[in-house]
Amino acid sequence: MHRMTSTQARRMRRPVLQAAIDAGAKCAEADPDLFFRADGEPTATWQAQRAEAIRVCHGCPVRAACEELALRDGDGNDRVDDLVRGGRSGCELAALRKRQAQRLSEAMTADEAADAEWRNLIEASVELWAEARVMPTRSAGIRHQAELVAQQNQRLRELADRITAVRSARRARTGWGVAA
Ligand code: SF4
User: Fold this and answer.
1) Domain chopping of the chain, boundaries
2) Ligand 1 pocket check: which of 55, 62, 73 to mutate, most ligand atoms within 8 Å of Cβ?
3) First to last CA, the chain
4) Which residue minimizes the CA distance to atom 5 of ligand 1?
5) Which in 32, 46, 123, 165 has the greatest CB count within 10 A?
6) Which residues of the chain have pLDDT under 70?
């Protein structure tokens, strides 16, 4: 699998980061307990376990996506050393989050906007599908039926335009240019 860079991960929206992790997480083959300190686990044991977990992460193709998502999720605490995610201890994640606070705030705001955009796209697609299944009534005479068909075509065009506008904006924003 292609190894993602931090620069690439920072440009991605949350669902894309999550999909990359779902597809490539190396820890999917590891013991999940490796990444968390057990209650009352002695420091020396945890330090050895933490080093092993970090070693697994450093061989993971989606480490950058995982770290980015952990930062946006608020994982880690600067007072409690009890987990590893994205190749970093919880304390390291907390410190990194402080240093990148402005960038992360902007990324999370963009995630929210993308969620709203995605809902808009789904709603328009469902409306388009439902509208396309409606047969204008045949009981009102040929002339009136032609009007109904024209109105329906107009609604379909408006919905298709709405979908194209959302897709084009998203593609342009992510550097893909205008929707094909
Ligand atoms: S970076 Fe580590 S915690 Fe994250 S998906 Fe990869 S192996 Fe799992």
Assistant:
1) 6-99, 104-173
2) 62
3) 27
4) 25
5) 46
6) 1, 138-142, 173-180
